[in-house]
Design a protein that fits this description.
231 residues; alpha+beta; Jelly Rolls; nine-stranded antiparallel beta sheet; four-stranded antiparallel beta sheet; 3 helices; 19 strands; globular; disordered N terminus
């Protein structure tokens, strides 16, 4: 699906076949939805890659933060109760190997979007009862407090979630405005567009990380920017 309009380009996915051939592996396009554009990709990460990402991040995790609409800074909020650790691109020898040269290139090929337009990978951990209440990943262009964040690489045009573990109960990614929920599966990826084809924000992209009822959810998030991202 080519999601392009005029001079504005946003990430897009080739949906002409049920499988997508990437440089280092073939993945399966399990389901899609529109609007907003949502796609579930099975087998995006190997179980070994999932385990490596968890082990690289788990000892460095802290309470997750959100971008404050009041002043644009990162702050803890009771709407987001997970633990997380963020990597800069190529931040450690292990991440250089499995994230930058493999996973980063895989994401770029899947979504036809340059590696340099992505924020650093963030690994999250949700224990029992932890959640991320309904929110948007885009920055509200009408809120002047977000301008500093937008200046680092433009709008967040898309989000790729990669599930690093199975979860016994709960922990789904829910889109309340379209009555859609995707349940976690180790190695599976979920992509959704934060903007419309013309680059304007997509209100239907409201989403939530549902509470984990049993087990532990590990998740890796990649936010894609309109322009090259500078941290």
């Amino acid at each position: 699906m080519s999601q392009q309009s005029g001079t504005i380009n946003i990430p897009y996915m080739d949906m002409s076949h049920n499988s997508i051939v990437l440089p280092d592996k073939t993945v399966r396009l399990a389901s899609t939805f529109y609007p907003p554009f949502v796609a579930v990709i099975e087998g995006f990460l190997s179980h070994k890659e999932c385990d490596q990402l968890i082990s690289s991040a788990e000892g460095n995790m802290r309470d997750s933060r959100v971008v404050s609409p009041v002043d644009g800074t990162f702050a803890e909020h009771d709407a987001r109760t997970s633990k997380s650790h963020g990597f800069q691109r190529g931040a450690t020898p292990l991440i250089t190997t499995i994230e930058k040269t493999t996973i980063e290139n895989r994401i770029a090929a899947l979504l036809h979007w340059p590696v340099v337009h992505g924020e650093g990978l963030q690994v999250l951990k949700y224990g029992k009862g932890q959640e991320y209440r309904p929110h948007y990943d885009f920055f509200d262009p009408k809120n002047a407090n977000y301008q500093k964040n937008i200046g680092k690489g433009g709008q967040r045009v898309g989000t790729l979630l990669m599930y690093l573990s199975d979860v016994e109960a709960g922990g789904g990614t829910n889109f309340p405005k379209i009555n859609l929920e995707v349940r976690p599966k180790k190695g599976m990826a979920l992509y959704f567009a934060n903007t419309k084809f013309d680059g304007s924000i997509e209100p239907l992209s409201l989403h939530a990380g549902m509470p984990v009822n049993k087990g532990t959810k590990f998740l890796a998030t990649k936010w894609l920017r309109a322009n090259p991202y500078v941290s």
